[in-house]
Amino acid sequence: MDILYYIGIGINFFLLLILITKKGKTLADFILAAWLFFIGIHTILYVLSLQPASESTIHWIVGVSAPFILVHGPFLYLYTAASTNAFSFKKKTWLFHFWPFVGSILTLMPLYLMSAKEKMDLYNSDGAAYQNFNSGLLIFIYVTGLIYIFLSFHLLRKHKKNIGNQFSYEEKINLNWLRYLIYGLLVIWIIIIVLKKNSLIYGSGVVFVTILGYLGIRQVGIFGMNEAQLINETGQTDLLTDPINTESQPVEAEIPKKKYANSGITIEQANEIHQQLIQLMETEKFYTEPELSLNILAAKLSVHPNYLSQVINEKEGVSFFDYINTLRVNEFKRLIQEKDQSQFTLISIAYDCGFNSKSSFYKNFKKVTGQSPTDYINQLNIN
């Protein structure tokens, strides 16, 4: 089993090196790098604690790695927050999440300052002097770990809802990979609570960090360059970029306020925006842009995103996501009756309508029509 830990340490720091040298790092990347560093140190300290106890090795065995388990929950939460654009580095409240880690180190400081002989006596007595502390620490680890996993899931649920209000697509930004990582850490926490076997805990940790580093390095920014380019093509403002978070992200409150931004929207203004929207969709078929977002469409119409979202919600009775994908489905239905089906595949036509994946097309088509594309076409052929 020891060789697995050494392999895990090597993979950990190799992934950390790749991440550090990655171009265009986001805030999530910086948090992931810090997390990988702490995971690497934690694993090294655990490997050192496996040595036979002696006065020359006892300093690595007694209590050194214990506090490090308290950093993984906070890092998971902060990484999830940064990946969903729900975290600001400028707000120092994020430091609060690490006070249990720092507090446990301060509490154990008398232990760390003991002589080798004193630590050997403590080790031979199975840590009798620290039994109450160990029990309390374990309970605290169990509770905080599960709380941070729950909070991370909560952030992902909010993110999924935000996708419907801001984007016309889910691919690359649904963060399902991050959901799987949270499930993975939940499994490790269950092993910690139920099985309490270090070999399983750290063995699964090696697998987890490999997947974490690989997926984290491959992550795609929620607000990418395509959005910035499309907004610039319309002659509107550039997306703002946080000086630390190099990931482009529209800051809704900072978008220059257009015609309706300084006052409450009236019925007449809402109707005007709605008519402009309908005309744009009919004449330019703007919904065929695969990565269309609310901000891009608002910039095209010279309307503040808040008002455009309100108009779509009130006038169409659906979210931005459903509104755009309904138009795409209707366009597909129109094209399928005009094109020679022997020369075009369903997916190629779906791409022409703005869908950027087969799964997205099938999912939205069934949601709008209540039947699959194949059943719909078969029905057309029968009629």
Order of helices and strands: HHHHHHHHHHHHHHHHHH
Strand content: under 5%
Q: What is the name of the CATH class of the largest domain?
A: Mainly Alpha
Q: Any idea what the radius of gyration is?
A: 27 Å
Topology:
Blueprint: H1 2-20, H2 27-49, H3 58-61, H4 72-83, H5 99-107, H6 109-112, H7 116-124, H8 131-166, H9 176-195, H10 198-217, H11 225-233, H12 267-284, H13 294-301, H14 305-316, H15 320-338, H16 346-352, H17 358-369, H18 373-382
What would you note in describing this structure?
There is one protein chain. Helix content is 66%, strand content 0%. It folds into 2 domains: 2-217, Up-down Bundle (Rhopdopsin 7-helix transmembrane proteins), CATH 1.20.1070; 226-382, Orthogonal Bundle (Arc Repressor Mutant, subunit A). α2 (27-49) runs antiparallel to α10 and α12 packs across α14. The protein has helices at residues 2-20, 27-49, 58-61, 72-83, 99-107, 109-112, 116-124, 131-166, 176-195, 198-217, 225-233, 267-284, 294-301, 305-316, 320-338, 346-352, 358-369, 373-382. Residues 223-263 have low confidence and may be disordered. The protein has 383 residues and is mainly α. The chain contains 18 helices and no strands.
